[in-house]
Design brief:
Rossmann fold, 15% strand, binds BIS(adenosine)-5'-pentaphosphate, 215 residues, alpha/beta, 8 strands, binds magnesium ion, 5-stranded parallel β-sheet, 47% helix, binds zinc ion
Length: 215
Amino acid sequence: MRIVLLGGPGSGKGTQAKMLVEKLGIPQISTGDIFRAALKEGTPMGLKAKTYMDKGELVPDDVVIGVVEERLSKPDLDKGYMLDGFPRTLAQAKALDKILEAQGKSISHAVLVDVPDEELVKRLSGRRTCRNSACGAMFHVIFNAPKKEGVCDICGSELYQRDDDNEKTIRERLGVYNKQTAPLVQYFADKGLLRKVQGVGPIEEIFARIENAIA
Ligand code: AP5
Ligand code: MG
Ligand code: ZN
């Protein structure tokens, strides 16, 4: 199963992807996570990506497509994967089609996690992320609080607030999503692949909706 997770910043793509990894045993490929890991290692690609991420803008298509192409050539993807945060532009969607076509493969579903903008702002403002990139769990100070403040329930590492989770950058990311990424909803609908899931409510309920949508 090759799934695309679509949805605005903070819609819960990462949260749901991590649960799907457990359930389906297929890896999550998050371009945002790849860039943050590259930045932590101090690679030129990571440093370049940071200049865009800090402003809430998209990293240029050629950089992102190169990263994804390399990732999709790895041997751990036989059973499928989930793309979290990619594609985000029409050019990326078309590049993905090309990569898959060359592999004789295709996307099975594009799941849209649908959440209103104001709810997204609340979610991102209170998000806390695990510093251990191998874990990367997400919490929320109110909606999904860790058992112990500032500590990851899963691996015990420190929780931090992402640099782009401040109100100004959040608004910018929302604008970018609505302008550049939202058109992909129609793109996947035209291919008959779109599964729209209501993304407001308890995390477990949304997970059940997604499971239904891809069953
Ligand atoms: P990326 O890392 O992909 O960020 P994003 O799209 O802005 O999405 P988020 O990770 O912020 O949100 P999410 O949907 O994963 O929500 P989460 O599960 O954490 O991208 C960051 C940047 O990298 C971009 O701005 C861009 O610069 C660059 N980039 C990445 N990919 C790119 C690409 N393809 N092209 C170009 N540039 C790219 O949940 C959010 C919060 O809500 C958490 O606190 C969580 O606990 C809480 N929550 C989750 N579910 C619920 C619920 N049901 N109810 C209440 N709270 C909930
Ligand atoms: Mg995420
Ligand atoms: Zn952790």
